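Students often ask what a holo structure prediction actually looks like on paper. The answer is less mysterious than it sounds. You provide the chain, you provide the ligand, and the output is a string of discrete structure tokens encoding the 3D arrangement of the protein together with phosphoric acid mono(formamide)ester.
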Amino acid sequence: MNYTSIKDIDSLSDWVFDAIKIKKNPLKNKKLGKNKTLGLLFFNPSLRTRLSTQKAAQNLGMNIMVMNFTNEGWTLEFEEGAIMNSGASEHIKEAAKVVSQYCDIIAIRAFAELKNKDVDNSEMVLNGFLKYASVPIVNMESATGHPLQSLADAITMQEYKTKHKPKVVLSWAPHPKALPQAVVNSFIEMMQLQEANFVITHPKGYELNPEIVKNSNVEYNQDKAFENADFIYAKNWSNYNDYGEITNSDPNWTITAKKMQLTNKAKFMHCLPVRRNVIVSDEVLDSENSIVIEQANNRTYAAQLVLQKILENEK
Ligand code: CP
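The corresponding structure tokens follow.
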């Protein structure tokens, strides 16, 4: 069993229920991971994913190895038949097989480079490990998805929702650096498995991959989208069509207290890290309706559920 996409979840409601059970007694399965090793491979920086996944593995009694490929590992080659006479020192074929001998589960973070849409959509790093590793693979944010984040988001919404079918708004917000679409892609896929009035709002021209958005409701007027919302999920993404470009940095899209007043006292969510007073104003982020810290806390229980399911499956 791998966990590389929201599509790996057979029943979102069951998974959320199980994760909330784990949260109540996180050390219950402390023996499940005894003598098992989780390898965390990072091709990009992290705070939450690294520490929460490590914490989750510790709660299951696992050993953990962490490797940062940005400054510690050999540069990897992913192309079949490559003549490796330039930068890359090691091919994924050897690297994945070697790491599989040391680890019982491999978790990988490898962001989109935002230079070439086809290359990013090919998920070269994640698929390279899926192809050549002989142990289960977990996606800790790939070029196109962040399914551990969106499972934590689902857990958080379940904890805070006050009605069966809340209005959930995913809002684009400005950002000075070009960011991938991975978080929002998985959030949308997760919301499509939920009973909710789900609305995506972004400036015209910032349309996401239509194969992911499908029939989800898109509203270009942010104020209109916010009306009576129960949850506001803010996130920047760079332009998907004008791939990887920043074609809009309109500060009117920043989430402010005035905008939140249009909502039904909505809870504010963001995956973090967040740029204060660019994505969201201090007063919103510091308000009692901001649930970003609990959202980050739930990263541990999302990861723990995924690791637990994999360990149980491998028994
Ligand atoms: N939300 C999230 O993935 O945080 P990190 O990038 O810090 O891991």
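Residues 46-49, 141, 149, 271-273 surround phosphoric acid mono(formamide)ester (CB under 6 Å).
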